[in-house]
C-alpha cells in the first residue's frame, strides 16, 4: 500500500472532470509485480490446498502446516485486485476507510502466520531429531490443531496496531484534484511511528528467525553425529520455504530499521531514503505469497511424469513417510545406545 503513495507524485495537469492522476513509473512497476503475484500465486495456492485435501491420504505435520500457509497466502492475494485498482485507476482509494484498514490488517496477519508456521516446521524437525520419543507422543491431531489455533490467534493479536496506523485521508494534488489515499498515519508522533516499524521487525522477523536458526543448527549438529546423513525431501522443502521468506521479507525489515534510525536521529536524508525504498520493498514482500507454490513444483518435479496433476500430493505424502522413517531411525538409535550403556554398566 505504501507503493500506492508514489502513484500520484508529481502529477501533470489533467482535467478536473476526470479526477484522475497520471500513473508514475514506480506505480507501473508495482502493477506489474502485483499482477504477476496474483496470476501465479492465487491459483497456485488453491492448487496446493486442493492437492493436500483431495490427493493426500496420510498428512504429515509438514503437510498440514503447508496447507495453512497456502490458505493464508491465498486469502492475502485476494486483496491484489483492490491494490491494482488503487494503483492504476488514478482516483485514490475508492473502497472506504473500513476496507483500507481491513486489507492492511489481513496483510499483517499473513506476515505473522507465515513466519510462525515456518517456526513450527523448524521446531517439529528439531524435536524429531533431538527427542524422537517425545516427538512421537506430541504428534497428535489434538496438539497440532491447538498449536495452529494459537498461531492464528497470536497473529491476529500482533496485527492489531496495523489498522490504528492506517487511514483513508484526503489530499489535494498540485493540479487541484482532491482524492483519498489509504496511507500510514501516526498522529504526527515519532514514538508511534518508531513503535510500529520496530515492533513489526522484532516480532515478525528477528525473534522468529533466531528461533529458526537455533532449531536448524541443532538439527544439523544432530544429523552429523547420527548414523544417517541423508537429508530428507521434507527438510529441503522447509529450508526452501525459510530461504524464500527471508529473501522477500528481509529488505522490508531493513527499511523498517533504517526508518526507525532516521526518526530517532531526526535525519531527514535517512528518512527520505527509507520512504523512497518502501514502495518497492513492500511490493517485493507481497510477492512472497506467490512464490511457495513455485517452490513445491520444483521440489516435486520428479513425480510429475508418474503422477500428473497429483504430483504435489506425492510430494507431501513423501514428507509423511520420511518423518516416520526419521523417527523410527532415531528411536532405534536411541534404544541401541541405551542398551550399550546398560551392558557397559553391567
What is the topology?
Layout lengths: L1 H4 L19 H31 L5 H17 L2 H10 L6 H35 L1 H7 L2 H18 L2 H4 L1 E7 L5 E7 L5 H36 L7 H33 L2 H19 L1 H12 L4 H4 L3 H35 L1
Antiparallel strand pairs: 1-2
Helix pairs in contact: 2-3, 2-4, 2-11, 2-12, 2-14, 3-5, 3-12, 5-6, 5-7, 5-9, 5-10, 6-14, 9-10, 10-11, 10-12
Structural class: mainly alpha
* Total domain units: 1
Mean pLDDT: 81
Task: Note the quaternary state here.
Answer: single chain
Sheet with the most strands: spatial strand order: 1-2
The ordered string of helix (H) and strand (E) elements is: HHHHHHHHEEHHHHHH
The coarse silhouette is globular
Provide a descriptive summary of the structure in words.
- The chain has 346 residues and is mostly helical.
- The protein has one domain (47-320): Rhodopsin 7-helix transmembrane proteins (Rhopdopsin 7-helix transmembrane proteins), CATH 1.20.1070.10.
- Helix content is 77%, strand content 4%.
- The protein has 14 helices and two strands; from the N terminus they run ααααααααββαααααα.
- Helix 2 (25-55) packs across helix 14, helix 5 (96-130) packs across helix 6 (132-138) and helix 9 (190-225) runs antiparallel to helix 10 (233-265).
- The protein starts with a helix and ends with a helix.
Question: Can you give keywords for this protein?
Answer:
single chain; 346 residues; mainly alpha; Rhopdopsin 7-helix transmembrane proteins; two-stranded antiparallel ribbon; globular; phosphoprotein; GPCR_Rhodpsn_7TM; receptor; transmembrane
Amino acid at each position: 500500500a505504501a507503493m500506492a503513495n508514489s502513484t500520484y507524485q508529481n502529477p501533470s495537469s489533467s482535467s478536473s472532470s476526470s479526477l484522475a492522476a497520471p500513473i508514475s513509473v514506480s506505480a507501473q512497476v508495482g502493477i506489474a509485480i502485483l499482477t504477476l503475484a496474483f496470476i501465479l500465486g492465487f491459483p497456485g495456492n488453491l492448487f496446493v490446498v486442493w492437492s493436500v485435501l483431495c490427493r493426500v491420504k496420510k498428512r504429515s505435520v509438514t503437510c498440514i502446516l503447508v496447507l495453512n500457509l497456502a490458505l493464508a497466502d491465498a486469502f492475502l492475494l485476494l486483496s491484489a485486485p483492490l491494490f491494482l485498482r488503487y494503483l492504476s485507476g488514478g482516483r485514490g482509494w475508492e473502497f472506504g476507510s473500513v476496507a483500507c484498514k481491513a486489507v492492511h490488517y489481513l496483510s499483517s496477519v499473513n506476515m505473522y502466520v507465515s513466519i510462525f508456521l515456518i517456526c513450527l516446521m523448524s521446531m517439529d524437525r528439531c524435536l524429531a531429531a533431538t527427542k524422537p520419543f517425545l516427538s512421537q507422543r506430541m504428534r497428535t491431531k489434538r496438539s497440532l490443531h491447538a498449536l495452529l489455533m494459537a498461531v492464528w490467534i497470536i497473529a491476529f493479536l500482533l496485527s492489531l496496531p496495523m489498522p490504528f496506523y492506517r487511514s483513508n485521508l484526503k489530499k489535494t494534488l498540485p493540479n487541484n484534484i482532491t482524492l483519498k489515499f489509504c496511507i500510514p498515519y501516526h498522529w504526527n508522533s515519532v514514538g508511534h511511528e518508531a513503535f510500529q516499524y520496530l515492533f513489526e521487525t522484532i516480532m515478525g522477523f528477528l525473534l522468529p528467525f533466531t528461533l529458526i536458526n537455533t532449531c536448524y543448527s541443532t538439527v544439523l549438529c544432530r544429523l552429523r553425529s547420527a548414523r544417517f546423513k541423508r537429508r530428507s525431501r521434507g527438510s529441503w522443502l522447509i529450508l526452501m520455504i525459510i530461504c524464500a521468506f527471508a529473501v522477500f521479507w528481509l529488505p522490508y525489515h531493513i527499511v523498517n530499521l533504517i526508518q526507525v534510525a532516521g526518526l530517532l536521529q531526526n535525519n531527514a536524508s535517512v528518512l527520505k531514503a527509507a520512504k523512497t525504498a518502501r514502495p518497492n520493498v513492500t511490493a517485493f514482500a507481497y510477492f512472497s505469497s506467490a512464490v511457495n507454490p513455485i517452490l513445491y513444483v520444483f521440489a516435486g518435479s520428479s513425480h510429475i511424469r508418474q503422477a500428473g496433476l497429483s504430483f504435489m500430493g506425492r510430494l507431501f505424502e513423501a514428507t509423511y513417510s520420511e518423518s516416520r522413517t526419521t523417527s523410527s531411525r532415531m528411536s532405534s538409535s536411541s534404544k541401541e545406545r541405551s542398551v550399550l550403556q546398560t551392558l557397559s554398566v553391567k
